[in-house]
# Entry
Amino acid sequence: MSTETLPPPPAAAELTVGTANEANRRIWVEQKLKALPAGWRILDAGAGEQQYRPLCGHLQYLAQDFGQYVPETDPTGLQMGQWDYGKLDIVCDIAAIPQPDASFDAILCTEVFEHIPDPIPAIREFGRLLRKGGVLILSAPFCSITHFAPHYYANGFSPFFYRKHLGDYGFEITEMTPNGNYFEYLAQEIRRITQIATRYAGIAPDAEQKAAMRRVLGFLQEASASGQASSEVLCFGYHVTAVKNQANQTCTPGWSQAVNGLA
# Structure
């Protein structure tokens, strides 16, 4: 039996692996919004609590959501402790937004697709609402655990999903960047072990087990630094921008007139 003494695990403060999912997305969205020309009309589709409204002071900002998420109604998975939509500009189905054709210069839709039973009609609707040359700013999880139940339907939104369905509705992808990588994702979930084990198994790791997890996190941090290409097999999700480059030929005749009549 080996008597080798393990080195002490890295201090928690030295370990940042698996902590940047939301921060990376926030920085990316802020950069994209700042780059939009002043005065552009932007739709925040599935705006939720409208966290990006303060970044759109130079834009004509409209917030849309279906407005039906109530954390207290379902204990499944991860839920927000509190939720406040604020004053939404448009309350409706994301696939049937009562605004005219080609009436927006930009659409922002972040971390929404997993909460829509079928996101394809939403992409079609974005194609209808954006003018030619308009910009779509989009993110959705490639992998995530259950959250915001019962309004949680899917994940796995891969580059192939975006290439197929954005292309079908007249969009040209101009950027598609992975958020995180295989090692970052594993680290994020290791950091949840105490929470999940306590809730579902009724146990929590002891000091020795916590030290072992810190050792694993130290390895994952080292691997992440040189293993960015591992994002092709697993990551948090993709940050996508696309430009509307042609008219949407797939809308049902008379659809836009019917929608416009609701405005």
